[in-house]
UniProtKB/TrEMBL annotation:
One of its GO terms (cellular component) is plasma membrane. PANTHER family: LIPID A BIOSYNTHESIS LAUROYL ACYLTRANSFERASE, PHOSPHATIDYLINOSITOL MANNOSIDE ACYLTRANSFERASE. This is Lysophospholipid acyltransferase family protein. The keyword Transport does not apply. The lineage of its organism: Bacteria, Bacillati, Bacillota, Negativicutes, Selenomonadales. Its main location: membrane.
């Protein structure tokens, strides 16, 4: 698998970005027909409930959110070309980089809280190429060779990679001034999550960004990546969010996470095609009869 992916990467680097994005879009549209009907209906229902659209518009949004997987895969395969001087900066623009730069100047670590929108894989690579000392938190893949390839290519861009199970290393690297990139839109286990309001629905949410930030007195920078009409991407980094530290730890975490979830919700409303609607986001709350 590792060498197969390396060969695909070599081939992708022989063609232009426009050609690769075209191939990626074709593959995304083609594989859409292989998505199980039950999964499609779930995604369409989520869009209709969250955004109030009709079924036709909801299907268009869900399909667009799936198709973007194709171009994202092609971009990852082209990392060896993208990291050449200036190319990443042409392909990915950033708004709000000054917030991260100020934290770096102060030698202050922190958390970048983001989500599964647009080409989330390239977001970390782009931030690293812009000079951000970034730790990417990865989930270990079952296929060892695929895991080796993914870690190698993420590190190729300048990121440091740690596995999600190594919380101790995250604490250490925040103290050393690194910024930890965390995905915050998954449905965790009910034991580990917290019930918040998301699109007017009770939703089980992760607590990691607020928990880490509270323990380390570190800022949280909400971040979002979205698609640009020219095929590139635009990252928005929002002003830092700080966890108020009171005697009520759970309330401190709940209040901060709700603030972050509210920012995420607004960005999804602004750019609904970019968010991955096919994730069963409300699975755990359904088991409680809350959705």
């Amino acid at each position: 698998m590792y060498w197969f992916l390396k060969v695909l990467s070599w081939l992708a680097c022989r063609f232009s970005m426009d050609t690769c994005l075209g191939v990626g879009n074709f593959l995304g549209r083609l594989t859409w027909y292989g998505v199980p009907g039950k999964r499609k209906r779930m995604g369409i229902d989520n869009v209709m409930r969250c955004l109030g659209t009709d079924a036709q518009e909801a299907e268009r949004i869900v399909k667009a959110s799936w198709v973007q997987f194709g171009p994202m895969v092609m971009e990852v395969l082209r990392y060896p070309e993208l990291i050449k001087e200036g190319r990443m900066q042409q392909h990915v623009s950033i708004e709000g980089l000054e917030y991260l730069q100020e934290a770096i100047r102060q030698g202050q670590g922190g958390i970048i809280a983001t989500n599964h929108s647009d080409s989330w894989e390239i977001m970390g690579a782009a931030l690293a190429q812009y000079g951000v000392p970034l730790v990417g938190v990865a989930k270990k893949q079952k296929n060892h060779q695929a895991d080796r390839f993914i870690i190698e290519y993420r590190e190729l861009s300048g990121m440091h990679i740690t596995y999600s199970s190594d919380v101790r290393e995250m604490f250490k690297m925040i103290k050393e001034g690194w910024l930890i990139g965390l995905i915050m839109d998954q449905d965790p286990s009910l034991r580990d999550g917290i019930i918040l309001d998301f699109f007017g629905r009770k939703t089980n949410c992760v607590t990691g960004p607020a928990t880490l930030a509270r323990f380390q007195n570190a800022p949280i920078f909400p971040g979002q990546i979205r698609h640009r009409p020219d095929g590139g991407h635009h990252i928005t980094i929002f002003p830092p969010v700080y966890v108020e530290k009171t005697k009520n730890k759970q309330e401190d975490i709940r209040r901060t996470m709700q603030q972050l979830v509210d920012i995420l919700e607004q960005q999804i409303r602004n750019y609904p095609e970019d968010w991955f609607w096919l994730h069963d986001r409300w699975k755990s709350v359904r088991s409680l009869g809350l959705d």
